[in-house]
Request: fold
Amino acid sequence: MDQISKSKKSKAFVFIDPYGYKDIRASQIKSILETKKAEVLLFLPTQHMFRFEKKGRPKAFLSFIEDLIPEKNWPNSHTGIDFIENLKSAFREYLGATYFVDTFIITRDKNQFFCLFFFTSHIYGFEKMLEAKWEIDSEEGRGWSYKVPDAPTLFSPTKTDKVNKLENFFLCYLKEPRSNGEIYQATLHQGFRPTHAVEVLKGLATQNKISVTSTDGQKPRKGSYYINYTEFCDRPNRILIQLT
Reply:
């Protein structure tokens, strides 16, 4: 930690691959991020953690969870994927909007999931990480499997199903006016790319579910939502979008 803080120009990438997880705490990760000079990649044996979630909860598990949220507030997980999502949500809540958190799931075998957690305060770096993840897993943006995926079935999740989750988020988030910069940030926090946000917004516009207002008094160009890093830096309040 001291070495990172004392560095004047260089940035650090901290990879934590613990033997177990009993010595890792969310507060330690937060301290690293607070230096504003480092990103963190944390491997966790989430499948093993999930196994003990309802069976005795060993001290190591309790200490890890209670550094994030009170044990009584920890939600039940029905699957290993649920556990990862619950843990990701807990990290996001604990760290707040200043920091970005997402996961890369490694499927070792059927219903056996381990996970890398990525933490950063740099919004553009986070976007590039999401971009790489969605290129690897274009259907779900979730992760990587050791095995060739099974042929899709009628009940297999698709990219459309995944993006529907973003649409559901927007149907709540856009109940009040949101700027293009706010939507850019919120989209990344949900684990989606700006292109997904544009896709969803165009769909909502086609259904006449949103209104778009330009903040400079000019008529906004149809189909332009300015959800990208350049606009976030230069003109984050260019337009306002709200549910009608």
User: Anything to note?
Assistant: The two ends are 49 Å apart (CA to CA). Residues 146-159 have pLDDT under 50 and may be disordered. The beta strands are 12-16, 38-44, 100-109, 112-120, 143-145, 178-179, 210-214, 239-243. Residues 80-95 form the longest helix (16 residues).
